[in-house]
Write a structure and sequence with these properties.
The chain has 2 domains: 81 residues, Beta-Lactamase, CATH 3.30.450; 147 residues, 2-Layer Sandwich (Heat Shock Protein 90), CATH 3.30.565. 27% of the residues lie in helices and 32% in strands. The protein has 6 helices and 10 strands.
Length: 237
Amino acid sequence: MRQLLGYAPEELIGTNAFDLIHPEDVATTQQVFARILAALGASETAEYRLRRENGSWRWCEGTSTNLLDDPSVEAIVGSFHDVTDRHEAVDVAALVTATVEQAQATTDTHTLRMEIPARLPTAQWDADRIIQALRNLLSNAIKYTPAGGEIVVRVQGMGDAVQIAVTDQGIGIPDEAMRRLFVPFYRAENAQVEARGMGLGLTVSKGFVEAHGGHIGVASVVGEGSAFTVILPYRDG
């Protein structure tokens, strides 16, 4: 902790860990911790800002694991490292535009159309991870949309967050598959024929989005298509 945040170990005795977390990140961190507590052996990784001894904030990536059932440990074990350099000022419109253009270059049988406001606030993100999350959504949209179909990417400001929606004209997702959609390696039955890859793309995208304090959701109609919606806080304050 001294190297990461500047505190001597004895200075943190009796300190509530959540008091060191940035107020905007507390709710997300509490949700992660609750999920870990609820399942023995569970492990999650998240990013949040921690207050240094000098009062400044640093982005940290923490991985916590529930080892309460391990007789030699009987604790929640965590590891943390500084990832501040990964968080940079991001031009949201430029990031989405470049990612969609790259996806368009992978297909000559689909049309990718963008609806992006001329001006959006600058975001404070790990750009590489958000790009990868969007690439996964676009790749799936292309994969499951028949040749000649259109994929629309809509970006909309929502106060202190931005919404990015990827809507396709694909095969759609059955209701019974929706609750397992983000489970690693899972594929809906109607996606088996079209499937390529390991079935991890949505899981990875969900993890990257939630690590930024965001949310990913989906609405779908079988035979008509799906709309994946990502909501990400700008976190520029």
